[in-house]
Amino acid sequence: MSASLQLRASSPAELGAAFTRLISRSLMVDGQPPFNDQALVDAASGARRLIVAEHGDVIAGAVLVGEGEFEFVVDPEFRRNGLGTILLDRILDGAEPGIAGWAHGDHPASRILAERTGFEPIRTLYQLRMPVPAFSSTDSGNEGAGSGNEGIVVEAFRPGIDDDAWVELNARVFADHPEQGSITVDDLHARMAEPWFDAGDFLIARQADRVVAYNWLKIEGAEEPGEIYVVGVDSDYAGRGLGRMLMQRAFDRLRERGISTAALYVDADNVGAVHLYRSLGFTDHTVDVQYRRPVAE
After folding, report:
1. Domain boundaries, the chain
2. In Å, how far are 3, 20, 70, 82, 91 from 86, measured between CA atoms?
3. Does 7 count as an annotated binding residue?
4. What would the pLDDT profile of 235-255 be if each residue is shown by its tens digit?
5. Residue 271 is labelled as binding a ligand
6. Does 83 show up as a binding residue in the annotation?
7. 60: CB partners within 8 A, 6+ apart
8. Is there a binding annotation on residue 200?
9. Is 232 annotated as a binding residue?
10. Does 74 appear as a known binding residue?
11. Which of 10, 36, 137, 233 would bridge 213 by S-S if both were Cys, CB 3.0 to 4.6 A apart?
């Protein structure tokens, strides 16, 4: 394998359909994508490096590295041949101390490779799923639920109008989150340019002209689960039931779009959010684990 394997830097745009095919083949086998959305946005902009392993004319594997972390995938046809170790060695060659790596799905092979190379688990991300409820449990009005929510309405995101306000609120809500809290207006626009984006799936709660909460859905097709992409509530409005109300509105929207399954990702240590989602009926589907090799003192 290694004698006929070539590693080189590339970009998603250069690889085109070949890169998309690698992701799709891995998704089909593993049940989830090998790269998170922010990593793909960064790769497209050049903020993260993309390294591909080519076996003849075929992409056998790929690495995304940058922002202090890495993700890599091996095409299912080329697994169990040592390619994962080769790619990890390439990642670690010259990488900054303390670089972290994601194992999406936390498959046994990933755990074995992490243990063999001295990586330890530092973060756990749940993927939860549930059937979309058949009927709405919200009232017929558009006002927010809970005490003190008078005048709050839920409407679709307005491209070109809500951009800055949403980015500012998202940064405050996720100030301690390593990926979500760092999203810029350019990152938002990159997502808005994706085929799956629909402003009607981006639910914004407002009081007067102030954006106070949101629930963004990612719907890629009627046969795919509808993802609760990101939910946020302004800290000034916390504890008023806005998060639960927006989840119910999200179910309404998914039902309108013909989606039968809802999915979301949540950090295991976000106890409040995990409790909310489980109380709504979400259950475990898969687990992502982030690993880091301790830095020698």
Report:
1. 2-96, 133-259
2. 12, 22, 14, 6, 9
3. no
4. 999 999 999 999 999 999 999
5. yes
6. yes
7. 5, 53, 54, 74, 75, 77, 78, 83
8. no
9. yes
10. no
11. 233
249: annotated binding-site residue?
Answer: no
Q: What letter would DSSP give residue 235?
A: G
Measured CA to CA in angstroms, residue 77 lies from 60, 112, 182, 185 at distances of 8, 19, 35, 38
272 has binding-site annotation: yes
CATH topology of domain 2-96: Aminopeptidase (3.40.630)
16 carries a ligand binding annotation: no
Please, what sign has the CA dihedral across residues 26, 28, 31, 36? positive
Question: Under a CB-based contact definition with an 8 Å cutoff, are residues 80 and 6 in contact?
Answer: no
- Least reliable range by pLDDT among 9-23, 33-47, 95-109, 202-216: 95-109
pLDDT tens profile 250-296: 999 999 999 999 999 999 999 999 999 999 999 999 999 999 988 76
Say if residue 67 carries a ligand binding annotation.
Answer: no
Domain 133-259 top-level CATH class: alpha beta
